[in-house]
UniProtKB/TrEMBL annotation:
It comes from the Eukaryota. The lineage of its organism: Eukaryota, Viridiplantae, Streptophyta, Embryophyta, Tracheophyta. This is Peptidase C39-like domain-containing protein. It comes from Nymphaea colorata (pocket water lily).
Amino acid sequence: HYVVICGYDMDTDEFEIRDPASS
């Protein structure tokens, strides 16, 4: 199980994290 940090979100001031296992 792992997560992918795909980029920095300027709007929420945090990294966008996607979970390949849940999709």
